[in-house]
Amino acid sequence: MSYNLKFISDNDLYDHVKNTAEQYRFKIDLSDFNSNLVDAIKLTFDSKVYDKSISEVVESEVIRQLDKSNTNHIGYFHQNIFKYLGDNQWTVPQQGYDIVNLSKNIFVEMKNKHNTMNSSSSKNTYLRMQSTIIDNPQATCMLVEVIAKNSQNIEWKTTIDSTQLSNSRIRRVSIDKFYELVTGERDAFKQLCEVLPKVLSDVVIKMKEEDIETFGNPRIQQNTVLKELKNISNNIMQSIYIYTFTKYEGFDDKFQLR
Predict the structure, then answer these.
(1) Separation between Cα atoms, residue 92 and residue 14, nearest integer Å
(2) Cα–Cα distance between 146 and 55 in angstroms, integer?
(3) Between β-strands 163-165 and 158-160, what pairing exists: parallel, antiparallel or unpaired?
(4) Buried b (16+ CB within 10 A) or exposed e, 62-93
(5) How many CB atoms are located within 10 Å of the residue 159 CB?
(6) Is the CA virtual torsion 31, 37, 42, 44 positive or negative?
(7) Which regions in the chain score pLDDT beneath 70?
(8) I want to staple 172 with a disulfide (CB 3.0 to 4.6 A). Which of 69, 118, 141, 156 is the partner?
(9) By C-alpha distance, which of 219, 222, 225 is closest to 56?
């Protein structure tokens, strides 16, 4: 196991990738599926408009939900790797900013994509950073974007309530430039991307070995949503309505789709 990155040890990189991969969701049941109340009306439109079976639509929704959870885990990967970089000067607080370096007075909010924040979220983030640099004249605040439009470390210019705001100590920084700042290596992020598939391959092999030892079979996705819906009614669409709207008037075993 040798990855040859100067800015992070092989063990730290492997362990961090493994910790991230182990958070991936492999199981989903009907309770999980409806934990945020599935939109039965939308699923009906999707099925009819796209001319897909309701089973296909449910499977697509399952994949979307799993993907949403796993996207959050990738956020964990991007944020927490900095605990291992830059001579351990970078910390990941339990609350507040995502990443902090108190010795350099750098405070970081990290986003996965440049368009992740809506106008309200963007406003709140900027005002928070503005408050930070007022309270701490030595502070620099950064909005670090993993997927930015450009490689950049620029002054964040924005408009709030029709007023244009900017300050050289409030920055918008792409992830490659942030890696350069933290590690001192201009192409550190590129190096990480090049080696990541190999690390993940090593991790997945180990995870499969561990599952065989613990459970007797390799880790597999376990999706019981359709099976549980069929237990409610042979008509899966009907089951979705009954399950989703179970607390509404009339949505009991007498409910019948036409």
Answers:
(1) 19
(2) 35
(3) antiparallel
(4) beebbeeeeeeeebebbbebbebbbeeebebe
(5) 13
(6) positive
(7) 114-115, 212-221
(8) 156
(9) 225
Taking the C-alpha atoms of residue 241 and residue 245, their distance in angstroms, rounded to an integer, is: 6
Q: What is the pLDDT of residues 107-153, one digit of tens each?
A: 999 998 766 778 888 889 999 999 999 999 999 999 999 999 999 99
CB 148 within 8 A of CB 184: no
Question: What pTM did the predictor assign?
Answer: 0.85
Beta strand ranges found along 177-245 (DSSP E): 222-223
- What pLDDT is stored for residue 257 in this prediction? 85
Closest CA to 234 of 20, 54, 52: 54
Closest CA to 107 of 57, 29, 169, 189: 169
The angle at the Cα of 86, spanning 81 to 92, to the nearest 5 degrees, equals 45
Number of alpha carbons in the 13 Å side-chain half-sphere of residue 207: 19
Helical H segments across 39-135, by residue range? 40-49, 54-80, 119-135
> How would you classify the pairing of strands 222-223 and 153-155?
unpaired
The structural domains of the chain, with segments of one domain joined by +, span 10-82+196-244, 94-186
Give residue 183's identity as a one-letter amino acid code.
T
Q: What pLDDT score does 114 carry?
A: 64
Helix, strand, or coil (residue 12): helix
Measured over the CA atoms of residue 13, residue 16, residue 22 and residue 25, the dihedral's sign is negative
Helix axes 54-80, 225-232, angle to 10 degrees: 140
Q: How far apart, in whole angstroms, are the C-alpha atoms of residue 106 and residue 84?
A: 17
Tell me the percentage of the chain whose pLDDT exceeds 90: 64
DSSP 112: E
